[in-house]
Amino acid sequence: MAEQVALVVGATGLGEAVAHRLVADGRDLILCDREVARASGRLAETAAATGARVVATEVCLDTPDAFRDALPDLLRQAGHDAVDALVYTLLPDEAFTPRPLAALTDEQWRRLAEDPVRHGLTVLQAARELLAPRRGRLVLVVPAVALEGAADLVPLATAAETLRALAKSAARRWAADGITVNLVTPDVFAYGAEHLRGTDVDRGEAVLPGPTTPADVADAVALLLDPAAARLTGTTLIVDGGALMTP
C-alpha cells in the first residue's frame, strides 16, 4: 500500500476510524474536514509505525471550486498526483437529534438535510478527475436510515438517501473509467447515537452479538477498497450485525 493514497473527507467519528484503518494498512492519507487537529494528532503514532504520510487540513466544501483549488497543494504535500481511494463520511452530529417533522424550521432543514447533500455533491464533482488516473475507488458512508427512513430523523434520512442516489448514479457513469463507487451503511449506533435506543430507528435486534463499532465500519470500507472487490460497484453494504437483512 506504500504507493497508494486515500483522501478521507470527515475527520471525526467514523471518518477518524476509517483514517486509522487506511493508515494502518500503509496507505498515505489526506484527511479533510473543518476540524482535523485532534484526529491528525492521534493518527501520528499509527503513521509512524507504518511509514505512511498523513496530510491533514481544514477544507471548505461550500463550493466545488474552493474544494478543487485546495486539492493540487494537498496532493503535492502527500507526494501524489491523484488518489487511489476517496472516502466520504461527513454528516453533522446534530442530524442525529430527533426532531418532529412538523416542527422543523427552514434553517434546520437547510443545515441538516440540504448542506450534507451539497457538501457530498461538491466532493463528487471533484472525484472523477481525482480517481480516473488510477482507476480508483469511491466509498460513501451514510447511516442505514437511508434504506428505511426514520420518524423524527427525516433530514438525516433525506440527506443519506440522496447521497446514496448520487453515488449509484456516479457508479453507472464512471464505470467506463474503471472507477468503482460503493456505499457502507452502518446503523446509527455506530455513530455513537446511543440516545436513539428504543426509538423508531431501533427497529430490529442485531443477530450478531455486540454493538456495531466505528472499527467495524472502517473494516467494511477497507473491504470495498481491496483489489478483490474490483467487480463491486453501486453496492450498498449494510453494517448492522444483521438487524435489517435487506434487500
Task: Produce a short descriptive summary.
The chain has 247 residues and is of the alpha/beta class.
Task: Figure out the total of helices.
Answer: 7
Major β-sheet profile:
7 strands, parallel
Order of helices and strands: EHEHEHEHEHHEHE
Which ranges are low-confidence, i.e. pLDDT below 50, for 5 or more consecutive residues? none
Number of beta strands: 7
Please tell me how large the radius of gyration is: 17 Å
Shape estimate? globular
Report strand %. 5-15%
Q: How widely separated are the two ends?
A: 34 Å
The residue-averaged pLDDT reads 93
Structural class of the secondary structure composition?
alpha/beta
Strand order of the largest sheet: 3-2-1-4-5-6-7
Q: Report the helical percentage.
A: 40-55%
Task: Tell me about this structure.
The protein has helices at 14-24, 37-50, 64-78, 106-131, 145-148, 154-174, 214-225, and strands at 5-9, 28-32, 54-57, 85-88, 137-141, 180-186, 236-239. A 7-stranded parallel β-sheet has the order 3-2-1-4-5-6-7, with helices on both faces. It is α/β, with parallel strands linked by helices and 247 residues long. It contains 7 helices and 7 strands. Helices cover 42% and strands 14% of the residues. The radius of gyration is 17 Å and the shape is globular. Strand 1, helix 1 and strand 2 form a beta-alpha-beta unit.
